[in-house]
Design brief:
This protein has eleven helices and eight strands. It is α/β, with parallel strands linked by helices and 285 residues long. It has an eight-stranded parallel barrel with strand order 1-2-3-4-5-6-7-8, surrounded by six helices. Helix 4 packs across helix 5 (119-130), helix 5 runs parallel beside helix 6 and helix 10 packs across helix 11 (270-279). The longest helix has 21 residues, at 235-255. The radius of gyration is 18 Å and the shape is globular. The two termini are 20 Å apart. It binds flavin-adenine dinucleotide. Flavin-adenine dinucleotide binds at residues 45-46, 48, 73, 75, 100, 102-105, 118-120, 139, 145, 147-148, 153-154, 157, 160-161, 170, 172, 199, 216.
């Protein structure tokens, strides 16, 4: 963890672009509430092939009008180089200087993979197109990406993104702090020195969490799965236990020197705010 301790802490909150007017209204209330915590930035996800292109940009622009930094995600799967360059130019024309660059996942039924195969190629394209205009965050996986063939591959492929010009990384969520510590040590040994900020998924709904985790390769440890399953439909108990577990996780990570936290808010402020308060973090931490 030595290389991580020297980075300043960065706290950030992630949203997805809402699809309906009600969703937009709800998200507005959410970012306004979370804005009181003065995060370093907000971010908004981007669907494969640009499927949420407008919603991502609109969300980011709206949040920026209130003076906050907001970073759009950009995924390269199912897109052409020309499309990606046009999107980068659009971001740039709005004065956006911060991007989360991803490969994305091909939705079932979509045949074309696009011109870029991996996120390191997107980072290269961004640097070729826009030089140092953008600060670039990339994804990494302490419990391994589902398509990774070996532990060595995971680090090698992450390093490709760093060498292509990524400034920082956000992890897939996890509930086992040891997985993060081990991953960070392996990155350090491989010469990766950028900040690796833990991605944090608050627990509000077990069925949804189990579905996400199966899809993205994040492990729900057996002790946690059993306990959450035992609550069945008792949402209040799931949330209460989840808050204890996730607050403890965040506390362990920060104490060990993690350079901040990135919350997957799922467009809700409640759980993230409670975890923040229980950690005793100040606005603008
Ligand atoms: P990559 O870094 O390209 O890795 C994908 C797989 O390919 C890995 O198994 C890797 O080991 C392997 N690999 C990488 N490079 C090479 C190479 N050169 N040669 C051989 N193998 C290689 N998805 C979205 O669609 N939209 C979003 O907005 C979004 N936001 C996210 C934010 C965060 C913080 C995280 C952690 C994930 C996000 N995702 C998003 C999900 C992400 O797109 C998926 O996890 C996707 O499967 C991988 O994306 P990546 O950028 O990590 O891909």
């Amino acid at each position: 963890m030595q290389s991580q301790k020297k980075h300043p802490r960065v706290f950030s909150f992630e949203f997805f672009p809402p699809k309906t007017p009600e969703g937009r209204e709800k998200l507005r209330a959410t970012w306004k509430q979370l804005g009181q915590l003065k995060p370093k930035f907000f971010s908004c996800t981007y669907g494969a092939g640009g499927s949420t292109r407008e919603g991502t940009l609109e969300t980011v622009l709206e949040i920026r009008t209130a003076g906050f930094e907001a970073a759009p995600h950009l995924s390269c799967v199912a897109s052409s180089r020309a499309d990606l360059k046009a999107q980068l130019e659009k971001y740039r024309s709005h004065g956006i200087r911060h991007i989360v660059a991803l490969r994305g996942d091909l939705p079932s039924g979509l045949a074309s993979t696009g011109e870029l195969r991996y996120a390191n190629e997107l980072v290269t394209l961004i640097r070729e197109t826009a030089g140092d205009w953008f600060r670039i965050e990339v994804a990494c996986y302490p419990e391994y990406h589902p398509q990774t063939r070996s532990a060595a591959d995971e680090i090698r492929n992450f390093k490709r993104k760093v060498e292509a010009g990524a400034n920082a990384a956000i992890t897939q969520y996890f509930y086992n702090a040891e997985a993060y510590f081990r991953f960070v040590d392996e990155c350090e040994a491989a010469g990766i020195a950028i900040p690796i900020v833990p991605g944090i998924m608050p627990i509000g709904n077990f069925a949804q969490l189990a579905r996400f985790s199966d899809a993205c390769g994040a492990e729900i440890p057996r002790w946690l799965r059993f306990r959450l399953e035992s609550y069945r439909d008792d949402t209040a108990s799931i949330r209460a236990y989840g808050l204890d577990v996730v607050t403890r996780l965040c506390d362990d990570l920060l104490r060990a020197g993690a350079p901040g936290l990135h919350f997957y808010t799922l467009n809700q402020a409640g759980l993230t705010t409670t975890i923040w308060q229980r950690l005793g973090l100040q606005a603008g931490s």
